[in-house]
Amino acid sequence: MSEIKIISRELIEKAKNGDVSATEELIEICYPKIFAAARLIAGNKDDAEDITQEVFIKLFNNISNLKNVDAFGAWIRIITINECKVFFKKNNKKWLFPKKCG
């Protein structure tokens, strides 16, 4: 059985302050949920992998702008939904979720 990893406030703070290993650990912890959400929305593994990669590029490039570390979960979910929308638009795919979703 795999170990359950918890995202600590300290880990988010370290990543926010430029600690690359903390950011990598955040990505490792978040990957399963982000990929699952992207796969649910995209409907297939390949598109979900592309979306997930874009989410983590955004996380890596923008975590220093996160104002409230307690809002990390909501922040990463919003990034995921937005990257799904961008992917669908860029690839001329129809967004099947209600407009209020994200």
Structure characterization notes:
The chain has 102 residues and is mostly helical. It has one domain (9-90): Rna Polymerase Sigma Factor, Chain: A, CATH 1.10.1740.10. It is 67% helix and 0% strand. The chain contains four helices and no strands. It has helices at residues 9-16, 20-42, 45-62, 72-90. The longest helix has 23 residues, at 20-42. It is elongated and about 40 Å long. The termini are far apart. The mean pLDDT is 88.
Break the fold down into its secondary structure elements and pairings.
Layout: H1 9-16, H2 20-42, H3 45-62, H4 72-90
Helix pairs in contact: 1-2, 2-3, 2-4, 3-4
Key terms:
0% strand; mainly alpha; Rna Polymerase Sigma Factor, Chain: A; elongated; 102 residues; single chain; 4 helices
CATH topology: Rna Polymerase Sigma Factor, Chain: A
Largest sheet: none
Q: How much of the residues is beta strand, in percent?
A: under 5%
pLDDT averaged residue by residue? 88
Distance between the termini: 33 Å
Helix content: 55-70%
Computed over alpha carbons, the radius of gyration is: 14 Å
Structural class: mainly alpha
DSSP strand count: 0
CATH homologous superfamily descriptor? RNA polymerase sigma factor, region 2, helix turn helix motif
The CATH top-level class label: Mainly Alpha
